[in-house]
Amino acid sequence: MTDLFEASMTAAERVDGFLKRSGPKAAFLALLAAVLLIYAFAPGPYEPEMPCPTDNTSSIGLAPPLWWIGGAPRTPVLSSMGLDPNSRIRYDVLLGVSDEDMRVVGTTSGGRGKENLHLNITTPLEPGTVYRWQVVAENGLKKRSESEVWTFSTRALPEIERFEVDRSVVDLGESVTLSWSVINAREAEIGPGVGEVPLKGEVSLAPQDNVTFTLTVRNFAGMERASVDVAVSQHLVIDSMAGGWSTREDGKGSHVQDIRSVAGVEENATRISYDLILGGWVGITKTLSRRGGSGSLNLAGTDGLSFFCRGSESANALEIWLRDANGTIYGRFWGGGAISQDWTGLEAGYEEFGCIEVEGTGCKDATLDIGNVTAVYFIVADRESQEFGSSGWIAIDDLEAFHRQDGEAEG
Prior knowledge:
By secondary structure, the chain is mostly beta strands. The chain contains four helices and 29 strands. Strands 2, 4, 5, 7, 8 and 9 form a six-stranded mixed beta sheet that branches. Strands 18, 20, 21, 23, 26 and 29 form a six-stranded antiparallel beta sheet that branches. The chain has a six-stranded antiparallel beta sheet with strand order 19-22-28-24-25-27, with no helix packed on it. A hairpin with a 6-residue loop joins strand 4 (89-96) and strand 5 (103-110). The longest helix has 18 residues, at 24-41.
């Protein structure tokens, strides 16, 4: 109302001579007539038009600038008198997701003549949402013009269609396969330990500990995440020792008299009875493979082997051997007294294994490939050094590969 008051006062001053010659009633009527004339002849603002973004635009950012063309016609007579109410136009921008929800989100101003105007949205909008917006222009005499109601939609967040793991529980050293598919994303990454990935694909990993894999995807609208958990058994069960083992002899006269399944620590174990010549040996062996029955066993990521054993009172030595896909055989030796009559747990880190000369397998430049183990052997060797050799029995149970936790001392 300030502009209206100022315009009224100016009009009153310009008819000052008339006012001085008239009484109060005539002065009031003159003032009222001036106000009515100003209001009658002053045009209102132009209807705001040509919006940007244009009507029904989709996938725009979450803090867009809103543009339009506004202004108001110039009235020369009133302008020359300093009474033009269109010298300053106020623009209110309304925004909402529905007609009932539209609220003023900002105000700007302009002058006479058509001009480009804009308002920056400072509070981020919701992604994937259709908005309605309108501009209302108002001049100094409160004359208003409203634009049409325009619409636009914001860019949607990226969508994770699928993020899966083929197994949620694995033995240490076994691999899992992560697979995923993402749409409407600019980039994707998987952590921990994978990094940036394409928007669709799969990858195989052998986690060392319980882990939560997280897929993070981004676009200009924001970020989405999905996670899968994998539990890792710290002891990889290589064999329960319930059966399926074959015998092995030195070919010099030592014999396995009997091999059978017996009660073990929890379930069944494998037991052999043997006769050894002086310095001879016998044992049992089994070919190993990945779960599923093909290929070699991957022990990478484990630190050694553990098992339970018990036997007769003989002082014979016990050995465990590993053979890889290259034919290299490495073994670990326990001297007399290691075989107790009670179930006893033994373990050996891979750093304790050494190359063994067995049936032409040389040790020159040999290295055991822990990632491709094809067979394991348990060997009993004569260490009593009696003239006629020695006899006895031994039972083996629960062959596993173990992983030392960080900071855990070696056994």
